[in-house]
Amino acid sequence: GKISSAFKNSTDDADAPTWCKTREDSGLTFAGRRDIPSSVCHVSFDLPDTLQPPVLLYYQLTNFYQNHRRYVKSFDQEQLVGTFRSNSSINGSDCDPLEGEVTDEGVWKAYYPCGLIANSRFNDSIQAPVWLNPNNGAQNQTYNMTSNGTAWASDADLYGYPPPYTVNEVIPPPNWRQVYPTYNETYPLPNLNVDDSFQVWMRTAGLPTFSKLALRNDNENMPPGRYQIDVYDYFPVLPYDGTKSLLLSTHTVMGGRNPFLGIAYIVVGGLCILLGAMFTVTQLVKPRKLGDHSYLSWNTDQPSTATTTGRAPRPGDTA
């Protein structure tokens, strides 16, 4: 895959980043309930500089159109905020085409949460970076990162808890079945009010290439060294010809590194200079008196477009 970096110190002497993929049949245990087999991508890289907090770890997707009109409106805000929505009210709602389904018992039940956005949530499990052989020691150290605080604080108000349903009234969306095969006492309804990862995903992106915050550390420096990040691979990108990648970053009082804004400002500034030069040349070659009232439309003699033709002469008409 493609790798890029931008550090204060030179990375010429650093070992090249590497990655490999393994298969773990045990996979991850989600909330102590379910082991899910998975492919695991092990990414190793050198960090030449100390990253000062906040240290932010993003996932980046390409060719994923969260801004598609049908996708961006496919959710039910009342259901998410904690208002009871009957099966009949969900059926035919904005959640179309993922409103619900007929269960094995022959009963139509709504998905919770319903809609395309919720169903397609990013579900790769990104582990915290591990500092390999720190200070030539034998014991690896995990750089602690958490998903808490990755969503906007105000987003929690958009999701109510407890959910307005019992476990028998709704079913999980199709792409949630690995973690929630069904809703019952063993697999209770999710608490979306505290699920920052879900809230981050529900805030849709405006472009097909976007990054979303997955983990952060707001208190500790990330020292230089060799690190490894394990990613449990559950989110498919090949069906829509997309890619996914990791982005490790930090920011200052001036914000984070964003070359797009710099390029955009340079392009717009260049266009302004070009247009300014064109107007200057035009004014020098063919100047126009500023504030000349003779250019006003009502001060120019224009032939009337309302003149009638073909009318017979009347008494008193002059040629």
From TrEMBL:
Signal peptide span: none
Record's keyword annotation contains Protease: no
Residue intervals passing through the bilayer: 260-281
Membrane topology: Multi-pass membrane protein
An annotated GO cellular component: plasma membrane
Swiss-Prot/TrEMBL keywords: Membrane, Transmembrane, Transmembrane helix
Main localisation: membrane
Compartment(s) of residence: Membrane
UniProt record similarity statement: Belongs to the CDC50/LEM3 family.
Protein name: Uncharacterized protein
Organism per entry: Hortaea werneckii
Organism phylogeny: Eukaryota, Fungi, Dikarya, Ascomycota, Pezizomycotina
